[in-house]
Amino acid sequence: MALAGLSLEQAPPLSVPLRFFLTAPLFAFLAALLLLFSGPTALASRWSPALLAATHLLTLGFITMSMMATLLQMLPVLAGAAVKQPRLVAWLVHVPLSAGTLLLASGLAAGWKIGMLASLPLLAWAMLTFILVAAYSLARTEARNATINAMRLALGALAITALLGLTLAAILAGHAALPALKLTDLHAAWGLLGWVGVLIIGVAYQVVPMFQMTPAYATRITAWLAPWFFIMLLIWSITVWWAEDNAKWVALTGLAPGLIGFALATLSLQRKRRRRAPDITSQFWRMGMASLLAASGIWLVAQFSPALSAAAFYPLWLGMLWIVGFAMSVINGMLYKIVPFLVWLHLQSRRPARGAIPNTKEIIPDKMARRQLRAHGAALALLLCAAVLPNPLVYMAAAVWCVSCALLAWNVFSAYRLYHRLAA
Ligand code: HEM
Fold first, then answer.
1. What are the structural domains of the chain?
2. Which of 62, 124, 164, 169 has fewest C-beta within 10 Å?
3. Quick check: pTM over 0.85?
4. Number of neighbours of residue 9 by Cβ within 10 angstroms
Protein backbone atom coordinates (compact mmCIF):
# COMPACT_ATOMS: atom_id res chain seq x y z
CA MET A 1 0.00 0.00 0.00
CA ALA A 2 1.26 3.39 -0.99
CA LEU A 3 1.86 5.35 2.15
CA ALA A 4 1.97 2.52 4.63
CA GLY A 5 5.01 1.15 2.82
CA LEU A 6 6.78 4.48 3.02
CA SER A 7 10.08 4.44 4.83
CA LEU A 8 11.86 7.59 5.92
CA GLU A 9 14.73 7.01 3.49
CA GLN A 10 12.30 7.07 0.57
CA ALA A 11 10.07 9.83 1.87
CA PRO A 12 10.76 13.39 0.72
CA PRO A 13 11.33 15.88 3.58
CA LEU A 14 8.09 16.85 5.33
CA SER A 15 8.36 20.43 4.04
CA VAL A 16 7.93 19.14 0.45
CA PRO A 17 4.33 17.88 0.62
CA LEU A 18 3.33 20.08 3.54
CA ARG A 19 3.85 23.40 1.75
CA PHE A 20 1.33 22.24 -0.87
CA PHE A 21 -1.11 20.90 1.73
CA LEU A 22 -0.89 24.11 3.78
CA THR A 23 -1.43 26.37 0.77
CA ALA A 24 -4.29 24.42 -0.85
CA PRO A 25 -7.01 25.28 1.76
CA LEU A 26 -6.03 28.97 1.52
CA PHE A 27 -6.85 28.97 -2.19
CA ALA A 28 -10.21 27.31 -1.47
CA PHE A 29 -10.84 29.98 1.16
CA LEU A 30 -10.05 32.69 -1.44
CA ALA A 31 -12.55 31.11 -3.85
CA ALA A 32 -15.27 31.18 -1.18
CA LEU A 33 -14.38 34.75 -0.24
CA LEU A 34 -14.56 35.82 -3.88
CA LEU A 35 -18.05 34.33 -4.12
CA LEU A 36 -19.08 36.12 -0.93
CA PHE A 37 -17.96 39.51 -2.20
CA SER A 38 -19.21 39.03 -5.77
CA GLY A 39 -22.71 38.04 -4.65
CA PRO A 40 -25.46 36.84 -7.01
CA THR A 41 -23.73 38.18 -10.18
CA ALA A 42 -21.07 35.46 -9.73
CA LEU A 43 -23.73 32.80 -10.37
CA ALA A 44 -25.42 34.60 -13.28
CA SER A 45 -23.78 32.26 -15.83
CA ARG A 46 -20.87 29.85 -16.29
CA TRP A 47 -18.99 32.70 -17.99
CA SER A 48 -19.22 35.17 -15.12
CA PRO A 49 -15.70 36.51 -14.43
CA ALA A 50 -15.90 35.79 -10.69
CA LEU A 51 -16.99 32.19 -11.33
CA LEU A 52 -14.18 31.55 -13.81
CA ALA A 53 -11.71 32.98 -11.28
CA ALA A 54 -13.14 30.91 -8.41
CA THR A 55 -13.03 27.81 -10.66
CA HIS A 56 -9.26 28.21 -11.08
CA LEU A 57 -8.63 29.06 -7.44
CA LEU A 58 -10.19 25.62 -6.82
CA THR A 59 -8.96 23.55 -9.77
CA LEU A 60 -5.39 24.87 -9.77
CA GLY A 61 -5.05 26.27 -6.25
CA PHE A 62 -6.77 23.51 -4.28
CA ILE A 63 -7.11 20.39 -6.42
CA THR A 64 -3.95 20.48 -8.58
CA MET A 65 -1.90 21.76 -5.63
CA SER A 66 -2.98 18.83 -3.40
CA MET A 67 -2.80 16.20 -6.14
CA MET A 68 0.73 17.21 -7.09
CA ALA A 69 1.85 16.83 -3.47
CA THR A 70 0.10 13.45 -3.21
CA LEU A 71 1.88 12.27 -6.35
CA LEU A 72 5.30 13.47 -5.13
CA GLN A 73 4.64 11.55 -1.94
CA MET A 74 3.35 8.34 -3.55
CA LEU A 75 5.79 8.02 -6.45
CA PRO A 76 8.79 6.80 -4.40
CA VAL A 77 6.77 3.94 -2.96
CA LEU A 78 4.63 2.98 -5.90
CA ALA A 79 7.17 3.48 -8.63
CA GLY A 80 10.19 2.74 -6.44
CA ALA A 81 11.80 5.89 -7.84
CA ALA A 82 12.39 8.70 -5.38
CA VAL A 83 12.13 12.14 -6.95
CA LYS A 84 15.65 13.60 -7.10
CA GLN A 85 16.20 16.93 -5.31
CA PRO A 86 12.66 16.99 -3.88
CA ARG A 87 13.13 20.36 -2.12
CA LEU A 88 14.28 22.04 -5.32
CA VAL A 89 11.41 20.48 -7.29
CA ALA A 90 8.95 21.67 -4.63
CA TRP A 91 10.26 25.24 -4.89
CA LEU A 92 10.23 25.15 -8.68
CA VAL A 93 6.60 23.97 -8.77
CA HIS A 94 4.95 25.44 -5.69
CA VAL A 95 5.98 29.10 -6.07
CA PRO A 96 5.10 29.55 -9.78
CA LEU A 97 1.89 27.50 -9.38
CA SER A 98 0.75 29.71 -6.48
CA ALA A 99 1.76 33.00 -8.14
CA GLY A 100 0.41 31.92 -11.54
CA THR A 101 -2.93 30.84 -10.08
CA LEU A 102 -3.34 34.16 -8.24
CA LEU A 103 -2.50 36.13 -11.40
CA LEU A 104 -4.79 34.01 -13.61
CA ALA A 105 -7.67 34.32 -11.13
CA SER A 106 -7.18 38.11 -10.82
CA GLY A 107 -6.96 38.37 -14.60
CA LEU A 108 -10.18 36.38 -15.09
CA ALA A 109 -12.06 38.15 -12.28
CA ALA A 110 -11.15 41.69 -13.29
CA GLY A 111 -10.63 41.27 -17.04
CA TRP A 112 -7.01 42.26 -16.32
CA LYS A 113 -5.16 41.21 -19.48
CA ILE A 114 -1.67 41.89 -18.15
CA GLY A 115 -2.32 39.68 -15.13
CA MET A 116 -3.60 36.91 -17.36
CA LEU A 117 -0.59 37.18 -19.68
CA ALA A 118 1.83 37.29 -16.73
CA SER A 119 0.28 34.07 -15.36
CA LEU A 120 1.06 32.14 -18.52
CA PRO A 121 4.86 31.64 -18.18
CA LEU A 122 4.49 30.89 -14.46
CA LEU A 123 1.79 28.26 -14.95
CA ALA A 124 3.54 26.80 -18.01
CA TRP A 125 6.76 26.50 -15.98
CA ALA A 126 5.05 24.88 -12.97
CA MET A 127 3.15 22.39 -15.15
CA LEU A 128 6.14 21.52 -17.32
CA THR A 129 8.48 21.00 -14.36
CA PHE A 130 6.00 18.83 -12.51
CA ILE A 131 5.02 16.77 -15.57
CA LEU A 132 8.68 16.17 -16.53
CA VAL A 133 9.72 15.18 -13.01
CA ALA A 134 6.75 12.83 -12.52
CA ALA A 135 6.99 11.40 -16.05
CA TYR A 136 10.73 10.72 -15.60
CA SER A 137 10.04 8.91 -12.35
CA LEU A 138 7.21 6.88 -13.94
CA ALA A 139 9.27 6.10 -17.07
CA ARG A 140 12.15 4.62 -15.06
CA THR A 141 10.07 2.30 -12.94
CA GLU A 142 9.80 -1.38 -13.63
CA ALA A 143 6.84 -1.69 -11.27
CA ARG A 144 3.53 -2.41 -13.01
CA ASN A 145 0.20 -1.70 -11.43
CA ALA A 146 -3.10 -0.02 -12.20
CA THR A 147 -2.32 3.08 -10.14
CA ILE A 148 0.93 3.72 -12.01
CA ASN A 149 -0.91 3.36 -15.33
CA ALA A 150 -3.63 5.75 -14.20
CA MET A 151 -0.99 8.26 -13.06
CA ARG A 152 0.63 8.17 -16.50
CA LEU A 153 -2.71 8.82 -18.18
CA ALA A 154 -3.59 11.59 -15.71
CA LEU A 155 -0.26 13.31 -16.41
CA GLY A 156 -1.04 13.19 -20.13
CA ALA A 157 -4.45 14.73 -19.39
CA LEU A 158 -2.82 17.47 -17.31
CA ALA A 159 -0.49 18.31 -20.22
CA ILE A 160 -3.48 18.57 -22.60
CA THR A 161 -5.46 20.66 -20.06
CA ALA A 162 -2.56 23.04 -19.53
CA LEU A 163 -1.95 23.46 -23.27
CA LEU A 164 -5.62 24.22 -23.90
CA GLY A 165 -5.80 26.51 -20.84
CA LEU A 166 -2.75 28.51 -21.92
CA THR A 167 -4.23 28.86 -25.43
CA LEU A 168 -7.56 30.05 -23.96
CA ALA A 169 -5.83 32.61 -21.77
CA ALA A 170 -3.93 33.87 -24.82
CA ILE A 171 -7.25 34.14 -26.71
CA LEU A 172 -8.86 36.09 -23.84
CA ALA A 173 -5.85 38.40 -23.65
CA GLY A 174 -6.32 39.06 -27.37
CA HIS A 175 -3.27 37.15 -28.61
CA ALA A 176 -4.87 34.27 -30.50
CA ALA A 177 -7.95 33.74 -32.65
CA LEU A 178 -9.46 30.26 -32.29
CA PRO A 179 -12.96 28.84 -31.59
CA ALA A 180 -12.92 29.56 -27.85
CA LEU A 181 -16.20 27.85 -26.92
CA LYS A 182 -15.21 24.37 -28.13
CA LEU A 183 -11.72 24.81 -26.74
CA THR A 184 -13.18 25.74 -23.33
CA ASP A 185 -15.38 22.62 -23.32
CA LEU A 186 -12.39 20.46 -24.20
CA HIS A 187 -10.15 22.20 -21.65
CA ALA A 188 -12.73 21.79 -18.86
CA ALA A 189 -13.35 18.12 -19.78
CA TRP A 190 -9.64 17.20 -19.89
CA GLY A 191 -9.04 19.05 -16.62
CA LEU A 192 -12.03 17.73 -14.69
CA LEU A 193 -12.52 14.26 -16.20
CA GLY A 194 -8.95 13.50 -17.31
CA TRP A 195 -6.54 15.05 -14.81
CA VAL A 196 -8.84 15.03 -11.77
CA GLY A 197 -11.09 12.05 -12.58
CA VAL A 198 -8.48 9.56 -13.84
CA LEU A 199 -6.04 10.47 -11.07
CA ILE A 200 -8.63 10.07 -8.31
CA ILE A 201 -9.68 6.71 -9.79
CA GLY A 202 -6.04 5.51 -9.84
CA VAL A 203 -5.21 6.83 -6.37
CA ALA A 204 -8.44 5.33 -4.98
CA TYR A 205 -7.18 1.82 -5.82
CA GLN A 206 -4.48 2.40 -3.19
CA VAL A 207 -5.97 4.71 -0.61
CA VAL A 208 -9.54 3.41 -0.27
CA PRO A 209 -8.52 -0.08 0.94
CA MET A 210 -5.66 1.35 3.03
CA PHE A 211 -7.33 4.36 4.68
CA GLN A 212 -10.85 3.00 4.95
CA MET A 213 -10.04 -0.65 5.68
CA THR A 214 -12.08 -2.01 2.80
CA PRO A 215 -11.36 -4.99 0.55
CA ALA A 216 -9.38 -4.18 -2.62
CA TYR A 217 -11.12 -3.08 -5.85
CA ALA A 218 -11.85 -6.01 -8.15
CA THR A 219 -9.14 -6.64 -10.76
CA ARG A 220 -11.72 -6.37 -13.55
CA ILE A 221 -12.21 -2.74 -12.50
CA THR A 222 -8.60 -1.77 -11.87
CA ALA A 223 -7.43 -3.38 -15.12
CA TRP A 224 -9.63 -1.43 -17.48
CA LEU A 225 -11.42 1.51 -15.90
CA ALA A 226 -8.78 4.27 -16.18
CA PRO A 227 -7.58 3.32 -19.72
CA TRP A 228 -11.21 2.90 -20.89
CA PHE A 229 -12.14 6.27 -19.46
CA PHE A 230 -9.11 7.96 -21.05
CA ILE A 231 -9.86 6.46 -24.49
CA MET A 232 -13.52 7.50 -24.20
CA LEU A 233 -12.39 11.04 -23.37
CA LEU A 234 -10.23 11.05 -26.50
CA ILE A 235 -13.13 9.80 -28.65
CA TRP A 236 -15.49 12.31 -27.03
CA SER A 237 -13.03 15.16 -27.77
CA ILE A 238 -12.68 14.17 -31.42
CA THR A 239 -16.47 13.92 -31.70
CA VAL A 240 -17.01 17.32 -30.05
CA TRP A 241 -14.61 18.88 -32.55
CA TRP A 242 -15.84 17.18 -35.75
CA ALA A 243 -19.39 15.96 -35.13
CA GLU A 244 -20.73 17.64 -32.02
CA ASP A 245 -24.25 16.18 -32.31
CA ASN A 246 -22.88 12.67 -31.77
CA ALA A 247 -20.86 13.52 -28.66
CA LYS A 248 -23.80 12.66 -26.40
CA TRP A 249 -23.63 9.01 -27.50
CA VAL A 250 -20.02 8.78 -26.33
CA ALA A 251 -21.02 10.39 -23.02
CA LEU A 252 -23.92 7.96 -22.70
CA THR A 253 -22.12 4.75 -23.61
CA GLY A 254 -18.57 5.46 -22.50
CA LEU A 255 -17.94 8.22 -19.99
CA ALA A 256 -21.00 8.15 -17.74
CA PRO A 257 -21.04 4.34 -17.21
CA GLY A 258 -17.34 4.48 -16.25
CA LEU A 259 -17.99 7.16 -13.63
CA ILE A 260 -21.12 5.55 -12.28
CA GLY A 261 -19.37 2.16 -12.13
CA PHE A 262 -16.48 3.66 -10.16
CA ALA A 263 -18.76 5.44 -7.68
CA LEU A 264 -20.91 2.32 -7.11
CA ALA A 265 -17.85 0.08 -6.71
CA THR A 266 -16.38 2.48 -4.13
CA LEU A 267 -19.65 2.73 -2.18
CA SER A 268 -20.00 -1.03 -2.21
CA LEU A 269 -16.43 -1.47 -0.87
CA GLN A 270 -17.22 1.04 1.86
CA ARG A 271 -20.16 -1.09 2.95
CA LYS A 272 -17.70 -3.96 3.48
CA ARG A 273 -15.39 -1.94 5.74
CA ARG A 274 -13.66 -4.07 8.34
CA ARG A 275 -14.03 -1.34 10.95
CA ARG A 276 -17.62 -0.34 11.59
CA ALA A 277 -16.96 2.85 13.61
CA PRO A 278 -17.76 6.00 11.59
CA ASP A 279 -14.66 7.45 10.06
CA ILE A 280 -14.29 11.03 8.79
CA THR A 281 -12.35 10.10 5.65
CA SER A 282 -14.97 7.49 4.70
CA GLN A 283 -17.72 10.05 5.19
CA PHE A 284 -15.95 12.56 2.95
CA TRP A 285 -15.54 9.84 0.30
CA ARG A 286 -19.19 8.88 0.58
CA MET A 287 -20.15 12.50 -0.04
CA GLY A 288 -17.71 12.53 -2.96
CA MET A 289 -19.21 9.40 -4.54
CA ALA A 290 -22.79 10.63 -4.03
CA SER A 291 -21.83 13.88 -5.79
CA LEU A 292 -20.17 11.93 -8.60
CA LEU A 293 -23.35 9.89 -9.08
CA ALA A 294 -25.49 13.04 -9.03
CA ALA A 295 -23.20 14.86 -11.51
CA SER A 296 -23.18 11.86 -13.89
CA GLY A 297 -26.98 11.45 -13.62
CA ILE A 298 -27.69 15.12 -14.33
CA TRP A 299 -25.22 15.10 -17.22
CA LEU A 300 -26.91 12.04 -18.73
CA VAL A 301 -30.41 13.52 -18.42
CA ALA A 302 -29.24 16.82 -19.93
CA GLN A 303 -28.00 15.00 -23.07
CA PHE A 304 -31.65 14.28 -23.90
CA SER A 305 -33.44 17.16 -22.19
CA PRO A 306 -33.06 20.49 -23.96
CA ALA A 307 -34.92 22.15 -21.07
CA LEU A 308 -32.34 21.00 -18.52
CA SER A 309 -29.30 21.65 -20.68
CA ALA A 310 -30.55 25.19 -21.37
CA ALA A 311 -31.25 25.97 -17.70
CA ALA A 312 -28.84 28.55 -16.25
CA PHE A 313 -28.26 26.42 -13.14
CA TYR A 314 -27.33 23.27 -15.11
CA PRO A 315 -23.62 24.02 -15.81
CA LEU A 316 -23.31 25.46 -12.29
CA TRP A 317 -24.69 22.27 -10.75
CA LEU A 318 -22.31 20.17 -12.84
CA GLY A 319 -19.32 22.27 -11.79
CA MET A 320 -20.34 22.42 -8.13
CA LEU A 321 -21.06 18.70 -7.89
CA TRP A 322 -17.84 17.76 -9.66
CA ILE A 323 -15.43 20.27 -8.15
CA VAL A 324 -16.80 20.91 -4.64
CA GLY A 325 -18.85 17.72 -4.14
CA PHE A 326 -16.62 15.10 -5.75
CA ALA A 327 -13.01 16.31 -6.03
CA MET A 328 -12.83 18.56 -2.97
CA SER A 329 -14.60 16.05 -0.70
CA VAL A 330 -12.33 13.21 -1.72
CA ILE A 331 -9.14 15.28 -1.37
CA ASN A 332 -10.36 16.77 1.90
CA GLY A 333 -10.92 13.27 3.26
CA MET A 334 -7.47 12.14 2.10
CA LEU A 335 -5.80 15.13 3.78
CA TYR A 336 -7.13 13.94 7.14
CA LYS A 337 -5.23 10.68 6.71
CA ILE A 338 -2.12 11.81 4.81
CA VAL A 339 -1.18 14.88 6.88
CA PRO A 340 -1.37 13.21 10.35
CA PHE A 341 0.40 10.13 8.97
CA LEU A 342 3.28 12.17 7.54
CA VAL A 343 3.64 14.23 10.72
CA TRP A 344 3.71 10.99 12.75
CA LEU A 345 6.22 9.36 10.36
CA HIS A 346 8.62 12.29 10.48
CA LEU A 347 8.30 12.70 14.24
CA GLN A 348 9.47 9.13 14.63
CA SER A 349 12.85 10.01 13.16
CA ARG A 350 13.15 13.01 15.49
CA ARG A 351 12.16 11.35 18.74
CA PRO A 352 13.43 7.91 19.55
CA ALA A 353 11.28 7.87 22.73
CA ARG A 354 8.28 6.33 21.00
CA GLY A 355 5.82 6.98 23.81
CA ALA A 356 6.16 10.72 23.34
CA ILE A 357 4.87 10.67 19.76
CA PRO A 358 1.15 11.44 19.50
CA ASN A 359 -0.92 9.02 17.46
CA THR A 360 -2.56 10.21 14.25
CA LYS A 361 -5.94 10.80 15.95
CA GLU A 362 -4.24 13.22 18.33
CA ILE A 363 -2.50 15.09 15.52
CA ILE A 364 -5.82 16.14 13.94
CA PRO A 365 -8.60 15.26 16.43
CA ASP A 366 -11.77 13.71 14.96
CA LYS A 367 -13.86 16.39 16.68
CA MET A 368 -12.21 19.14 14.62
CA ALA A 369 -12.36 17.17 11.38
CA ARG A 370 -16.04 16.31 11.93
CA ARG A 371 -16.89 19.96 12.44
CA GLN A 372 -15.34 20.74 9.08
CA LEU A 373 -17.08 17.78 7.41
CA ARG A 374 -20.44 19.20 8.51
CA ALA A 375 -19.55 22.70 7.31
CA HIS A 376 -18.41 21.29 3.95
CA GLY A 377 -21.63 19.30 3.49
CA ALA A 378 -23.75 22.33 4.40
CA ALA A 379 -21.75 24.55 2.02
CA LEU A 380 -22.27 22.10 -0.85
CA ALA A 381 -26.02 21.88 -0.26
CA LEU A 382 -26.32 25.67 -0.01
CA LEU A 383 -24.21 26.20 -3.14
CA LEU A 384 -26.54 23.92 -5.12
CA CYS A 385 -29.56 25.88 -3.85
CA ALA A 386 -27.82 29.19 -4.60
CA ALA A 387 -27.30 28.12 -8.22
CA VAL A 388 -31.10 28.09 -8.58
CA LEU A 389 -31.83 31.10 -6.36
CA PRO A 390 -28.65 33.18 -6.20
CA ASN A 391 -30.23 36.09 -4.38
CA PRO A 392 -29.93 35.89 -1.35
CA LEU A 393 -28.69 32.28 -0.96
CA VAL A 394 -25.27 32.89 -2.44
CA TYR A 395 -24.25 34.94 0.61
CA MET A 396 -25.24 32.20 3.01
CA ALA A 397 -23.57 29.51 0.88
CA ALA A 398 -20.34 31.47 0.51
CA ALA A 399 -20.22 32.34 4.23
CA VAL A 400 -20.62 28.69 5.29
CA TRP A 401 -18.07 27.66 2.68
CA CYS A 402 -15.59 30.24 4.03
CA VAL A 403 -16.02 28.66 7.48
CA SER A 404 -15.42 25.17 6.08
CA CYS A 405 -12.24 26.19 4.21
CA ALA A 406 -10.95 28.15 7.22
CA LEU A 407 -11.49 25.10 9.45
CA LEU A 408 -9.62 22.88 7.01
CA ALA A 409 -6.74 25.37 6.85
CA TRP A 410 -6.68 25.51 10.65
CA ASN A 411 -6.71 21.71 11.04
CA VAL A 412 -3.79 21.22 8.63
CA PHE A 413 -1.91 24.14 10.19
CA SER A 414 -2.42 22.71 13.70
CA ALA A 415 -0.80 19.45 12.60
CA TYR A 416 2.16 21.41 11.25
CA ARG A 417 2.41 23.46 14.47
CA LEU A 418 2.37 20.30 16.57
CA TYR A 419 5.19 18.85 14.48
CA HIS A 420 7.26 21.99 14.97
CA ARG A 421 6.66 22.02 18.70
CA LEU A 422 7.57 18.37 19.20
CA ALA A 423 10.43 18.23 16.70
CA ALA A 424 12.11 21.35 18.07
C1 HEM B 1 -2.27 26.16 -17.18
C2 HEM B 1 -3.32 26.18 -16.41
C3 HEM B 1 -4.67 26.73 -16.83
C4 HEM B 1 -4.97 27.86 -17.54
C5 HEM B 1 -4.00 28.89 -18.10
C6 HEM B 1 -6.41 27.91 -17.66
C7 HEM B 1 -7.13 28.91 -18.34
C8 HEM B 1 -8.48 28.95 -18.51
C9 HEM B 1 -9.20 30.01 -19.15
C10 HEM B 1 -8.54 31.24 -19.76
C11 HEM B 1 -10.53 29.72 -19.10
C12 HEM B 1 -11.67 30.62 -19.55
C13 HEM B 1 -12.11 30.32 -20.92
C14 HEM B 1 -13.15 31.29 -21.41
O15 HEM B 1 -13.64 32.17 -20.70
O16 HEM B 1 -13.45 31.14 -22.58
C17 HEM B 1 -10.66 28.45 -18.43
C18 HEM B 1 -11.86 27.81 -18.16
C19 HEM B 1 -11.96 26.69 -17.36
N20 HEM B 1 -10.92 25.93 -16.84
FE21 HEM B 1 -8.96 26.39 -16.93
N22 HEM B 1 -6.96 26.83 -17.02
C23 HEM B 1 -5.93 26.08 -16.50
C24 HEM B 1 -6.03 24.90 -15.78
C25 HEM B 1 -7.22 24.28 -15.47
C26 HEM B 1 -7.33 23.05 -14.76
C27 HEM B 1 -6.15 22.21 -14.24
C28 HEM B 1 -8.66 22.77 -14.67
C29 HEM B 1 -9.36 21.60 -14.02
C30 HEM B 1 -8.81 20.74 -13.27
C31 HEM B 1 -9.39 23.83 -15.34
C32 HEM B 1 -10.77 23.90 -15.46
C33 HEM B 1 -11.45 24.88 -16.14
C34 HEM B 1 -12.89 24.98 -16.18
C35 HEM B 1 -13.86 23.99 -15.51
C36 HEM B 1 -13.20 26.12 -16.92
C37 HEM B 1 -14.56 26.76 -17.09
C38 HEM B 1 -15.33 26.16 -18.17
C39 HEM B 1 -16.73 26.65 -18.19
O40 HEM B 1 -17.27 27.30 -17.31
O41 HEM B 1 -17.29 26.33 -19.16
N42 HEM B 1 -8.48 24.73 -15.81
N43 HEM B 1 -9.40 28.00 -18.08
1. 15-423 (1.20.210.10)
2. 124
3. yes
4. 8
